[in-house]
Amino acid sequence: KKPRRFIVAVLSGLAILIASRQFIPFVDSILWQGFATNEFESAYGRIALLERQGENYIYENGRLTATSADTLSSEQIIHPIAWAHPTPKRILLIGGVFSGAIRDIQKHKVDKIVVPFPNKPLLKTGLSALSAVRNSVAKGNVIIVDNEARDVMLRDSTFDIIYLMPGVPSSGADNRFWTSEFFNIARSALDTNGIIAAALPVG
What we know:
With about 200 residues, the chain is α/β, with parallel strands linked by helices. It has helices at about 1-30, 75-85, 100-105, 120-130, 130-135, 150-155, 170-175, 180-190, and strands spanning about 35-40, 45-50, 55-60, 65, 90-95, 110-115, 140-145, 160-165, 190-200.
């Protein structure tokens, strides 16, 4: 009886999965009425690009990740920390790419901004939809690294400022940034007088 129940459970699960995937477009058509939508799957989850009246919105796994109207959310952490360092030249930016953080860091005449961003589909979507971000990344002092932040910090220990601006720690992709081990690695990646600045996520 147990093997039969197991088979029934597996088949039921597959049926639910297939039905849910077929049901998603119908639900989205109700939720996003009036929006032009482009949705696709990536290794990190479901990405949705929405557009209406010239504004673009990017959702990842149902959570708003970026909008072309967001121009202020990074200023409150970027500028005070940059002013606090005597000569900020080499910056590590973890998260915050779509909230204007790169543009705000560039206002301080830094030499290099290293940005770990292994989620290529999300990065490609953001650069295509957000012109301000695309223009900032195009400048010569920005280095996008297709690797995890932890690996970048283990190889480089000369950062003047590390900005930590990930999302809400509600998934494996984000909660790994909020561990004592991660902060110890970040501390070891700082140069003399280095600063770690963490933006506490809300939501």
